[in-house]
Amino acid sequence: MKLELRDYQKECLDLIDNLQPGSYLIQMATGCGKTATFTNIKRKGRVLVLAHREELVTQPVKYYDCPVGIEMANHKSHGEPVVIASVQSIVHRLENFKPTEFDTIITDEAHHAAASTYRKVYEYFKPRLHLGFTATPNRGDNVRLDDIYQDIIFERDIKWAIKNKYLTDIYCMRVNIGYDISKVARRMGDFAPGELEEVMNQEVLNNAIAETYKKYAKGQTLIFACSVEHAKAIAGKIPGAVAVTAETKNREELIKKFTNREIPVLVNCMIFTEGTDMPLVETVMIARPTSNSSLYTQMVGRGLRLYPGKDKLTLIDLVGTTGRANLCTAPTLIGVDLNAVPANKQDEIQGDLFELPDLIAEKADCPSSWIRNIEIVNIWAKEQSYKTHDVNYFKMPNGNMVVFIPKRKIVIPAQDELGKTIWNGQKVSMQKAFDEVYLYLKENHANEEYIWNVKMMKQWGKVPASEKQVSMIKRFMKDFDTENLNKMQATQILNRLFYK
Predict the structure, then answer these.
(1) Parallel, antiparallel, or unpaired for β 186-187 and 68-71?
(2) Domain for residue 2, yes or no?
(3) Distance (Å, rounded) from C-alpha 259 to C-alpha 281?
(4) What is the pLDDT of residues 202-247, one digit of tens each?
(5) Range of the domain at 388
(6) DSSP code of 264?
(7) pTM of this prediction?
(8) What CATH number does the domain containing 304 carry?
């Protein structure tokens, strides 16, 4: 199946053709044609493609211009130039291959690459190139890809694809339907599926989901549910809706009817997350809360394709109480963190996707967030396994880390998906940037350590705020209640007021 490749796909293929041996990551937003890209890589030997689901194993076959072998369940390869394997199958068949059998290994949906099954495959084979393709190599899920891939060589994210008219604009909405998943256990960086289903699949919540659909959804709607039973229950509340599950045999036929507007709503459980081609989706509703940004981006990605007459995607995040767990919502798509926005202001974060960063920055720029900042940074650094050396960083909504010292501020730009940042004009690990800032502060600002060292601040900061601090805060914010402020909290507020 010969496709006319887009300019950026050709650019990516040229880059790959000239790579030194090694392990590299390529990011392409859902809908930007990563399958068409990796199947057109110039072959310099045999190729192994790794995937983790049946659809992703069979889908690329049609794009190749040579015989393709399959390693999955009863299928076995027979020396073909390209082998596409389910990782669950090939991990048990490694002895059938020589370690040097493949010149290139391609991992589809490479955000799964940190899993132990994938690692076993990587440890066995010795290819010239290992290329990971993914729409969402996000480190926010604590998935360490930086010990698998040495660099990101090509990036075309959702923001780029929408701005360049390859994907549709998104109008983002938040609807609080009142669920409470704060006590749901966490497994492998996300909510435990069984417990999540138990809390979410309730009559009152399913009625709220149906009501939200009726009130806000526009056109052909795809709803993501927590489980098979949850999908069926939601579909039962919406006239004409059809539940699609792993047991559904006629999926292709249902997608065709949906695209022809014969079925208004498809409710699914983890079926349309990766690799499914759905040409027409005008509204996506997330009724499956997740704190895994890769999964979230995959769900939203189903609605990002352009289609004649489609103006933009309406994205409806169904939200509730999550406790300390992060919930992925629309800002996740562009790497913006909602943590710093007070809970009572989060429901105001809606509008066109590219308007959200300014809105979030505005809502997060308030005293309650400044005071909470130390806790926000601590949790983030612990999740990412970083040592911040007790430096009093402010974590900005865009991911930048900022230290305020008298008459200046030091900014470490937000990390990329392999935990790298640009520091002193060079791409370095985030940890190296933290180390260097600490050394710089120790050498050049030792006299102000009481301001930039969190441990020191905690020692002197427990006593009530001084009169001078209070009067300065009042000068900027007349109506702010300073009665219960301690010295450290007042310092955090003044830091932000002086160095905005």
Answers:
(1) unpaired
(2) no
(3) 8
(4) 999 999 999 999 999 999 999 999 999 999 999 999 999 999 988 8
(5) 367-498
(6) -
(7) 0.78
(8) 3.40.50.300
